[in-house]
Every structure is written in C-alpha cells, then in structure tokens.
C-alpha cells in the first residue's frame, strides 16, 4: 500500500485525516509466517538538525540470527516535525531502506512505537500498514499510557500498558536490572504475541537483536 504524503504546506488537518484512516487499517491479529524464516530490524533518526533522515535495516535468519544483509539510507527530510505526526516524517527513509534489502522479511522489528501512540499510529504501525508487513514496535520510553501493575525484576516479565481502558502494549523486562522495553504491535501481530516475539530474539543485551543491530549499523555509518 503506497502512502501519498500531502505536499505543499503539509496541512495538519489532511495528515490527521490520513492518519486516522491508516490507524483504522491496522490489524492486531497474527498474520506473520509460521515458522518465521527471516526477520529484520529497522532504525530511523535525523542528522543535520533534522535536515537528513537516516534509516538503517538489517536482515537476519530467524533461526540462527545470521546477518543476511544490511543497508543504510540518507534522504533529505520531506516534511517538518509536526506534533503527533512523526511517522510521516520517518516513513520515506524506512521505505527506501526496505527496498534496498535483498529479501523482504517475514517480520519487522521497528525501533519506535506501534499502536502505543496517541492516535494509534506510531511508526511501526504506519510502516506495517504502508508495506503490508507484520511489524512490532520496540521503544525505550513510554509515549502514552501507563502500567498499573508492578513489573517484576525477572527476565521476560511483562505487564500491560494501558491508555484509559484500552491496552496498547506491554512493559517488558528483557534483562534483569535494566529498564523495561515498551513493546507494542504494529500490524499483523496480536497483542498476546508481541512480547513473546521480542523475547525470542533477546540474547545478552537489553534490546532484541534486530533493533540492536539496526541501531549499531546506523551509528557506525553502515558497518556492523
């Protein structure tokens, strides 16, 4: 599914309407391949005071975590930083770096938020709907909502993240003694499956390998 970002002044009202329609298209039912064959991690950031968008991607064998491919792209940032609409700013570079990978992954892990977003369309959800790929958001800070139950300091412990009465994700303790990750479905991943899928790819670090490697590749300018 192609996403056409309005041009000109990037009218906020138009983007909000588009955002609402995209959020309604998110599926929170498992739609990923079983067994998974390949997974990918994606990271996106900005350079030059926001003038350049940098996106990195790493493609992994889902069974062995062998790196199959890695790519980095730098694009001129297409729009200003509008509150609540960051995913529109990040998406073009993510789509570009996805297109550079030698194969399409069965599941994408995005360094960012899924449906745990004020408008239920964080970058992992936006990316998932735009590409049709199953996706999960893995963030390091809460964007919206709160956890009402204590999170045990035990590897793999998780507790619901809620916004009002709606569950929008999980706080997940991926490593003892470390702050929890914020895990949320993006698209074609159920709420129940999201923490298990993230923990499946956590090794000795706090972050799951797909997003950890994507972040490292970006910070080293494309070198693993």
Topology:
Elements: H1 12-24, E1 38-47, E2 52-61, E3 67-76, H2 86-100, E4 107-111, H3 123-131, E5 135-139, E6 157-163, E7 166-173, E8 181-187, H4 193-200, H5 209-219
Parallel strand pairs: 1-4, 4-5
Antiparallel strand pairs: 1-2, 2-3, 5-8, 6-7, 7-8
How would you characterize this protein structure?
The structure is a single chain. The protein contains 5 helices and 8 strands. The protein has 224 residues and is of the alpha+beta class. Mean pLDDT is 93; it is low at 6-10.
- Rg over CA atoms, rounded to whole Å, is 16 Å
Strand content: 25-35%
Report the strand count.
8
Uncertain stretches: 6-10
- The third-level CATH topology is archaeoglobus fulgidus dsm 4304 fold
Distance between the termini: 31 Å
Secondary-structure content class: alpha+beta
Total domains:
1
Q: What's this model, at a glance?
A:
By secondary structure, this protein is of the alpha+beta class. It contains five helices and eight strands. An eight-stranded mixed beta sheet has the order 3-2-1-4-5-8-7-6, with helices on both faces.
